[in-house]
Structures are given as C-alpha cells and as structure tokens.
Design goal:
Blueprint: H1 10-16, H2 20-23, H3 29-58, H4 67-88, H5 92-96, E1 99-103, H6 111-121, H7 126-133, H8 138-155, H9 165-170, E2 172-176
Antiparallel strand pairs: 1-2
Helix pairs in contact: 3-4, 4-6, 7-8
C-alpha cells in the first residue's frame, strides 16, 4: 500500500492565486479618470470647510496671509480624508463609480498602506509643482499639469494589470465591484 500525499490546504491555493481575475477586474481608464475628476469636484467642499476652519483658527484676514501654512494644512487634511476612506475601501466618488481600493491579495488596505498610497499619488502633481516652484508661468504650469496627468494615466496601460503606477508601488489595486443583488 502506498500513502497518498495530503491535499493542499484551501488557504494555500487561495493565497497563491492573486491574479487579476481572482481579485476582480480593473476598471477601465476612462472610468478611473471620471472617478478622479468627480473626486476633484467633491474636494471643493473639503477645501472650503478646511479653509474656513483654518482662516477662523488662525485669524487670517487676507487670502495671501499664511498661504504656505494653509497649503500644508490642506495637504494634511487631504491625507486624513483619503487615508480614512481608502482604509474603509472607497471614497464617495469611488463608491459612485463602483471602484474599490484593495491590496494585492484583494483584502482591504491598512491605514498605513492608505497613507503610503496618498503620498505616492502626489506623483500626479510633482512635475507641475516643481515647475511652479522654479518660476514657470501659470499658463505653462497648467499645460504641464494636463499633459503630465494624461501621460501618467496612459502609463497605466503598460502595467500588467492596467493599474496606476502609484498603486503598484504602494501594493494596492483599484478593482471593480458589483452591488449586492436584492
């Protein structure tokens, strides 16, 4: 009699299978960019409330007073906003467009990973920001911004799973999810 080897544990076969099919399909680029634009519109409300709070607490009387402190404050507020919602799975815009943020194994991301994703997502704005700091005119910075966003978005086509590169570096993915049927 020969002994048959034990069957592999279901957990081992599940963890080895981390393909895009197992985690859910990647939303197409147009849907992700539409979500990105919608997120930008929603951020106007966050900026308004944060700006009002900052102006009230710092007793700022003129818009250019404490400008750099306001920018740093908004950077922190945006970080808190995105880290909080991404750790829960999605922002309001992502919920609207049926997009969820998960790690490479398809699990919800931690707040630390969400913070890393937030910091890496600033790659979308670094070249235009650097040009602004170097004294390039506002029109040129705006053209550079739109050009760089287009280039960065198109670069996702070269990722094996069509993810944005800041997601690949952060160990996260954007996936399509379905609403539960009633």
């Amino acid at each position: 009699m020969t002994a048959t080897p034990p069957a592999p544990a279901p957990q081992a076969s599940l963890s080895a299978k981390t393909s895009s099919a197992a985690l859910g399909p990647t939303p197409n680029l147009w849907r992700r960019m539409a979500c990105w634009l919608y997120e930008g519109m929603l951020m106007f409300g966050v900026v308004f409330i944060a700006g009002y709070l900052f102006g009230t607490l710092s007793q700022t009387r003129h818009a250019l007073d404490n400008r750099h402190a306001l920018q740093a404050f908004l950077f922190v507020v945006f970080g808190i906003y995105f880290t909080w919602f991404w750790a829960k799975g999605q922002t309001l815009a992502q919920k609207t467009w049926l997009i969820r943020v998960v790690d490479t194994a398809g699990q919800p991301i931690t707040q630390a990973r969400a913070l890393l994703r937030y910091l890496l997502s600033w790659v979308w704005f670094l070249p235009p920001l650097a040009a602004y700091l170097l004294g390039v005119s506002a029109i040129e910075v705006l053209v550079l911004l739109f050009g760089w966003v287009a280039i960065w978005a198109i670069l996702s086509r070269f990722h094996p799973e069509r993810q944005f590169w800041h997601d690949a570096l952060a160990g996260t993915r954007l996936v399509h999810f379905e609403l539960p049927k009633k």
